[in-house]
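User: quick one, sequence for these tokens?
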């Protein structure tokens, strides 16, 4: 999956429809299609996931996103 496809999938999620593009791009950059670590699922088809470490790193730059990402 390309970076732009990830951005489109994340932007389509209700929590991120009006989010600034830099936040969506940061999440898309970190998002993976699979991982062996504890995961937070962003979407259902195709599945995009973040590891807990990814969420920590994103939250460091954008603290308000932690609560949105953890809900997923």
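Assistant:
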């Amino acid at each position: 999956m390309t970076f732009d496809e990830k951005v489109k999938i994340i932007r389509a999620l209700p929590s991120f429809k009006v989010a600034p593009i830099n936040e969506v791009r940061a999440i898309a950059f970190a998002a993976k299609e699979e991982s062996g670590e504890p995961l937070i699922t962003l979407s259902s088809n195709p599945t995009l996931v973040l590891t807990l470490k990814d969420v920590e790193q994103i939250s460091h730059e954008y603290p308000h996103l932690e609560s949105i990402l953890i809900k997923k």
